[in-house]
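User: Batch of two.

Assistant: Item 1 of 2:
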Amino acid sequence: MSPADPAPAAVSAADVELWLADQGIVPLERIERDGIASWDLDLDGRRRFEIRVTLILDPALALIAWVQFAPPITDYFRKSYRKLLRWNDEFPFVKFAISEDERPILTSELAVGGLDGDELGLALARLLAVCDRLVEESAAWIWVDGRVPAPAGRVSRQAALFARYADRLGELAEP
């Protein structure tokens, strides 16, 4: 960045809350410490429900959307890690990793320069769509019996979010 280029405007916690409200998303909790704000969200995919998402905002740097993708991995680590690496290659806008407690996580990092409610909404829609796309492949990690529960007529609370970004989700837009 040259001296003539303005620095990207910082994003505030109030901005994020307005953007979430615009998407019809009500956070479970907000925590703020040392200028860093975080929100816990409980969101639904079209096939996988009650997905815990944490947003972490450093107002001058980035907003990170962090999905607790599955409980800690206790099976064949090599096979699981290979699967995560393959998914990282297949889904370019999100990244899989392993947390300190061996929990698979799914993340999307959004730089504050150019960040707005539309970009946040698209990122959340992508994360949920990836959870849906991989529901069968990750079922053994998520559910004790390794089977995806029947939706029993349940409809995603984020249906409007998927509809809003369907034209930008590409192949992830397919239910």
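Item 2 of 2:
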Amino acid sequence: MTITNTQLAVSRIFQGARSIRRWRVEFLGLTFLASVLVIGATNSASAGDARDEAPVRALGDTFAKAFVQKNAELRASLFAEDGTFVTPQGDFLQGRTAMVKEFGPEAQQAVNGTTQAAFSNYRVRFVKPDVAVVDALLTVRSVNGPDGTIIPVIPITFFYVAVRHADRWLIEDGRAHFAPAPPNGMTTRK
């Protein structure tokens, strides 16, 4: 009987090890299947996002182009009718009418014949298929300063929420802030 009890105990241990092994194989199989499904869903979502990312980025690019062209109406038209925008100086604007006024002749005095503006470093995240959050850097070059001198470069961090309205993307909310100047190498950190 002692042999039978020992054999029974060894048999149960072996069966337990086999069931643990089977559980691990099943678990790994399910994990692999879930990973494949997630990767497939992510790739198909990314393909849809890539298709929509171009018009979302175009909002920023058109904003920069309209700035250089001194076209306040075009800049304001990129926003939803009741959209909001905070200027780099901290002024809060709501609605296209307020934006056209703010983007008008007084603000356009900074632009001269050599002024350039361009967006870069776009980071676009789709929080829903029709809503995107965008962080970017707007670099404005060669603008007239308040004292009439030329300011060579002004980096501006630009954040906006873009929403698809029917077949057109518009900015619902935008925030622009003067970015810190890049280090010039003339100071050392201690």
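Confidence is low (pLDDT under 50) at residues 30-34, 36-48.
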